[in-house]
Amino acid sequence: MTSPAIRAERLQQRLEAFAHIGATPAGGVNRQALSPEDREARRLLAELAQARGFQVFQDAIANLFIRRSGRDDSLPPLLIGSHLDSQPTGGRFDGALGTLSAFEVLEALEDAKLETSGPIEVVAWTNEEGSRFAPGVMGSMAFAGAADPAQWQSLAGSDGASFSDELAATLAALPEAALRPLGTPLSGYIELHIEQGPSLEKEGLAIGVVTGVQGTRWLKVTVTGEAGHAGTTPLPYRRDPMVAAVGMMHQLQASVMPSDADARLTVGRIATIPGSVNAIPKAVTFSLDLRHPSAIRLDAIEGEVRAICRAEGEKQGCSVEISMAFDMPPGVFAPGMIDTIEAAAGRLSLPSKKMVSGAFHDALFLARVAPTAMIFVPCRDGISHNEAEYVEPASIRDGARLLLEATVAVAYGAAMTSGGERP
Amino acid sequence: MTSPAIRAERLQQRLEAFAHIGATPAGGVNRQALSPEDREARRLLAELAQARGFQVFQDAIANLFIRRSGRDDSLPPLLIGSHLDSQPTGGRFDGALGTLSAFEVLEALEDAKLETSGPIEVVAWTNEEGSRFAPGVMGSMAFAGAADPAQWQSLAGSDGASFSDELAATLAALPEAALRPLGTPLSGYIELHIEQGPSLEKEGLAIGVVTGVQGTRWLKVTVTGEAGHAGTTPLPYRRDPMVAAVGMMHQLQASVMPSDADARLTVGRIATIPGSVNAIPKAVTFSLDLRHPSAIRLDAIEGEVRAICRAEGEKQGCSVEISMAFDMPPGVFAPGMIDTIEAAAGRLSLPSKKMVSGAFHDALFLARVAPTAMIFVPCRDGISHNEAEYVEPASIRDGARLLLEATVAVAYGAAMTSGGERP
Q1: What is the pTM of this model?
Q2: Is the ipTM of this complex over 0.90?
């Protein structure tokens, strides 16, 4: 038995192979959830698994599991993985990197004939992106018992497809995957993913040790004033909702993020009614995307938004309505898992920092049912959800090595590298 | 021969009759240019004219003229009138008040058998609104030689209709209107119109003596930054065009109108790309409607806009592009005509003020070819381009009386009321 080691060129080849499934001319992938491309990717992974003697399972929402047995398969598995579905014009690494790196870990363990006490499983969660069928993180949400899949029975996709039909077709396409119940006990969950942000690259770090997922709140602000003629209405007679909205956004942009490095406030969408060049608008609506890893701070930011909007509305004689369009509480990962990963990165001499994830991940829901952590690797310019998404081969290697080191450390409660006990 | 006098109830009835043509359920009119409703209104006016023995003419762009002969019809006529076409959900007074008040003036002169040296003509200009076929003030623009109608030959309407076909149909529908050349000499032009703004009503004045039309400039500002994920991108790594745009609008809203009571600056339309709630925009575009009666000040305001936009763009690392979408220089009316109208208002004990028009009118182009002035009357809450548009009967009466007094004063160079010479 040898020390298990990642074979970087094998992982690189796997990434290439999967990048062909749903490939777009611009070098990305269109491999949306429960599509023929998704089914093709699942088939390929299942066949690679069976070639190594791993067992393949799926549950009722088509989450795909690949098991490498341990001494005692009745023990709850350690689960590693991510998702395989993509955005319509997605990159080849978002989800695929984590899933295929996890499979490479299984292969490395198998190459080294390392025996573990319980099973190690790779997972490809169904419909993480939510672009074809909303909502996203669907498979992990259902696994964690946070949603009942029955509610999605009549769901139609962005392309008009029937969710039920596509789910049935996806399950049927992999008859060799034995069916298992939805939601099974785990000993832990580790997910590797690209950062989808610019900070690791800009700070020259190899690894992000992710401590949790920010809470997210989407607000819709509607400011109503009085429509009027842009030419004939002098200033004292105006109740201009655009002036009020600008006042609101200006204050919020100047105060929220500058005073708190963990906060995010973004105006992504705005519209005026009637929207004529020569009309003082009757109303303005704009969106606010608020994020913070602390639920208390998120509440405080929302309170600040409401107070500022009310005040600026009053200044212009406008009324303000704020509705909540989306609310996802922060998720906190397990301190023990975080420490294990950080220590593993140290042993591999990979410069790292602790950080919060700005984007949702399946790990957010897994954290509710098992000790969970995530590993980030840098992606070029932080670009994701974009066909130009790119990860350096060195980062691919670093991430997979750390995932293997961390998997073994969690499986054994001991370090693999530098003098740790071998089982 | 008696002193000519407006018959207010007759004018009120005419307004009612025309309000039925293209009437909307909400009490307004949909009588767009060169439509069947427009043709019906022209027919009705032509018949009323012929019933009084007035002659009816039209030119190649379907401007409609009604002549009451003077002693010498070779003299250039004094022209009074406005337009009959409306917005899709327009009010019953915008344009119709001025045209029908002018016709009431002709009827009052005819009732009194008052002989004038040259002819007095009423005009209904084609397509003032520009809502169906752009641009607006089309008939007066062509009359004044400011545009060649040939350029509109292939024009299609907002409803897909062919401008050429509709123009031909409109001309053909009034065979009794003799054709005259496009653009004929005038001795003067007076237009009565609703203010379409709130100031006369709020200041308790009966009449606005209009000294000119503001210059108008429409700019399109495009701010380009860097798209990004709203959750993962920290503030130092953002080049957010929405922040830049808000900075621009905030400064402009705070400085331009507050420092100059004659200036108007309005943001009527704004959009983000891609326009997702969770995306820092790649770009933001917004419109600026700028107005000022002074061309020099309009240039200075545009300069201020460009400087502020450039500076705010730089602060956020964004590029800025500003294009001119529309540019109408200010129009100045004839001092002699203005004085005549002001004096006439005084003789009728109508409280008035001099003021600039915030909206375009046919008078803007007439001012290029003849001594021109306008009379404003208040409309309720300043509302126009709206089915709720309303003018008090007292204001209708005041406007028509003043139009008659001013017409006679211009035609004779003398006052009609209070001891002026009778011809």
Answers
A1: 0.80
A2: no
